[in-house]
Amino acid sequence: MAGMVAKPGSTIAAAFLAGALALFAGGESALAQAALTGDQILEALRPRVPRSLTTSPAERARVEEEQRVIGGALHQSPSGTLSPGQRGQVAAVTKEKPKVDLEIYFDYKSTAISAKAAPELSALGKALKDPELAGSRFMIAGHTDAKGSDQYNLSLSERRAEAVKRYLVERFGLSADTLMAVGYGKEQLKDKDNPYSAKNRRVQVVNFGAKSTASK
User: Fold this and answer.
1) How many Cα atoms occupy the beta-carbon half-sphere of 69 within 13 Å?
2) Would you state the pLDDT for residue 69?
3) Rounded CA separation 67/49 (Å)
């Protein structure tokens, strides 16, 4: 009725419900992380200081094996997909390496980088060109959520990682030989409790370090 006045309690409840529905409708985009700056990316990828200046035989052997895995993957990645065994070996190597997760936007079911991704990719390119990271080798790893088949997600994540690599080479003049593009599909979910979460759809950049210093 036109002459009715809403009760204060019902007005508050309605406003609360409207806000909750708006958040639900917006989904995880309402909670999406802010784009990282070049300085933040540089800080995340900065080489770590060795815990000791002395190197034991066991540590030298570990580093040599690590370099063998990285070298083999770098050689293989431009010509084809890494095998499951290679992906597992590389994943083990990256655990202790400096890394950063980026939310790079692509067109739906596509490898085309959207205009929305430009600011974060520009920040990444500037960070990788910084003198502090000179000589380092990097892995660009594509990850998806759990929607779709294993093979589809693996292929899509690999092609998206290659698209990011190509962007960095063409726009920032980075050497293709120092960038390894790898697709993991849905093998490494960041949010395992929520396999369809947007957090799982990401590009991870890992600093493998410089070959000349890592093998000493």
Assistant:
1) 20
2) 87
3) 18
What residues contact residue 201 under an 8 Å CB cut-off, 6+ apart?
Answer: 103, 143, 144, 145
Q: Which residues pair with 206 in a beta bridge?
A: 99, 139
Collapsing DSSP states into helix, strand and coil, what is residue 61? helix
Give me the sheet containing 99-102, strands edge to edge.
99-102, 202-209, 137-143, 179-185
DSSP tag of 96: T
Task: Scan for tokens 């806000």, then name that residue.
Answer: 19
- Rounded to whole angstroms, what are the CA distances from 168 to 122, 134, 207? 8, 15, 15
**Most distant pair of Cα atoms in the chain: their distance:** 87
Give residue 149's identity as a one-letter amino acid code: S
Q: How confident is the model at residue 165 (pLDDT cuts 50, 70, 90)?
A: very high
- Rounded to 5 degrees, φ, ψ at 83 are -70, 160
Enter the pTM of the model: 0.76
45, 125 in Cβ contact below 8 A? no
Q: Which two tokens stand for residue 17?
A: 């419900």
